[in-house]
Design brief:
This is isochorismate synthase. GO terms for molecular function: isochorismate synthase activity. It catalyses: chorismate = isochorismate. Belongs to the isochorismate synthase family. This protein has a 21-stranded mixed beta sheet that branches. Strand 6 and strand 7 form a beta hairpin. By secondary structure, it is of the alpha+beta class. The protein has a single domain, classed as Anthranilate synthase (4-Layer Sandwich). It is built from eight helices and 21 strands. Helices cover 27% and strands 37% of the residues.
Length: 408
């Protein structure tokens, strides 16, 4: 029998500046408001694809867990060995799974470290590298803005003809940098400007998502649904009025109801009870406001072996990134959208050895390939949508990443 590999988790103490710890080699991040997880070093990595990719991921993760002898003195969700995952939107594209050698976590003012191997506890160093000054050459993505507006018009007609209720169409934007793009600097800029979002990086996919697809913690499940968007002006009085108009907008409320219903339908089979607020709240970010609903549930005690992988397989794709009904919306996306989403709009985050985890939808993000980055934005299309307004909304959704890059 092969010798087991030690995995050790021990408490660190108080506040740790997570994003300041990341080295330049394979940094991993899932951080919101200073809390979360960062990791580095690669113990193991693989890619999965196909309709059963979530089950493939579980099988690979469990195979790796059998190699470990775990010593955990903290015993909370996210301690012990950890899997960082970035799943593709489509089952025809590759998802990335990484087990880091070192993970540092923090929650509620308490911090801990996990490392793999029989070496001593790693020394944590704050890495305050100077900001690299990069210039960017921007270019259209896969399709032009005019073509995208025409796609929106085609989708609206299909909705008005009764073929579908809602569909989400995405577009991309490309930038070539004057040097190597460092995801750590993007993460720091995003965390500073958008502290209420989850700032993530897994294998080149970097962003700040406001949408939590799944949090599973000791039998309690939460999903934050966002659908319905309006831009902010920077004038508090005007934005208060815009917030009120968003909360009353029939177009945005319709889009939001589809997204909430799809999440509730996916969670219900796993839960003995669910809680869905009667109406959404308005989530204020630095540049936009969203209609938001937090759906919660208690996993049924009779539902054995329910883990994050099983729930993800049902939750993804939600109406927030696909549409309603799901199959019809996906068909329209395939025929109209004209781009490869890759891991944009897929689940991203972490899963622990118990199957608990926290994963968001990869939004407000870009994919880095050395000196280039491809940004993504998508809009929910319903019967009352207007192509010009949807184009403007997509531009606003590019803003967080464009700003984060411009500060580098």
């Amino acid at each position: 029998m092969p010798q087991l590999i030690p995995v050790t988790t021990t408490r660190l103490g108080g506040h740790i500046p997570l994003l300041e710890l990341l080295p330049d080699a394979q940094p991993l991040s899932w951080v919101r408001g200073g809390d979360g997880m960062v990791g580095w070093g690669v113990f193991a990595q693989t890619k999965v694809k196909g309709p059963d990719r979530f089950n493939q991921a579980r099988t690979w993760w469990h195979d790796q867990l059998e190699k470990f002898a775990v010593t955990d003195s903290v015993h909370t969700t996210g301690t012990g060995p950890l899997l960082f995952a970035s799943f593709s939107y489509s089952d025809s594209e590759e998802s990335v799974l990484i087990i880091p050698e070192v993970v540092v976590g923090m929650k509620g003012g308490k911090s801990w470290i996990t490392w793999i191997g029989d070496k001593p506890q790693p020394v944590l160093l704050e890495r305050a590298e100077p900001l690299n000054s990069l210039s960017y050459t921007w270019s259209n993505g896969t399709i032009s803005t005019q073509a995208w507006k025409e796609n929106i018009s085609s989708a609206i007609k299909k909705i008005q003809d009764g073929k579908i209720e809602k569909v989400v169409l995405a577009r991309d934007l490309n930038a070539l940098a004057s040097g190597a793009i460092d995801p750590r600097l993007i993460l720091r800029n995003l965390a500073e400007q958008y502290p209420s979002t989850w700032c993530f990086h897994v294998d080149g996919l970097v962003g700040a998502t406001p949408e939590l697809l799944l949090r599973l913690t000791r039998g309690m499940v939460t999903s934050r649904v966002l659908a319905g968007t309006i831009s902010k002006t920077g004038d508090d009085e005007k934005d208060l009025a815009r917030s009120a108009s968003l909360a009353r907008s029939s177009k945005d409320l319709e889009e939001h109801v589809y997204a909430v219903n799809s999440v509730v339908a996916s969670l219900t089979p796993f839960c003995s009870s669910t809680n869905v607020p009667d109406s959404p709240f308005v989530l204020h970010l630095a540049n936009v406001m969203h209609l938001a609903t937090d759906v919660t549930g208690a996993v049924s005690e009779s539902a054995h072996h329910i883990d994050s992988f099983a729930i993800l397989a049902k939750l993804h794709p939600s109406a927030a990134v696909c549409g309603t009904p799901t199959n019809s919306a996906n068909e329209i996306i395939s025929s109209l959208e004209g781009i490869s989403r890759g891991r944009y709009a897929g689940p991203v985050g972490w899963i622990d050895a118990r199957g608990d985890g926290e994963l968001g939808i990869a939004l407000r993000c870009g994919e880095i390939t050395q000196n280039s980055i491809r940004l993504f934005a998508g809009c929910g299309i319903v019967a009352e949508s207007d192509p010009e307004k949807e184009l403007a909304e997509s531009q606003v959704k590019f803003t967080p990443m464009i700003q984060a890059l411009s500060k580098i």
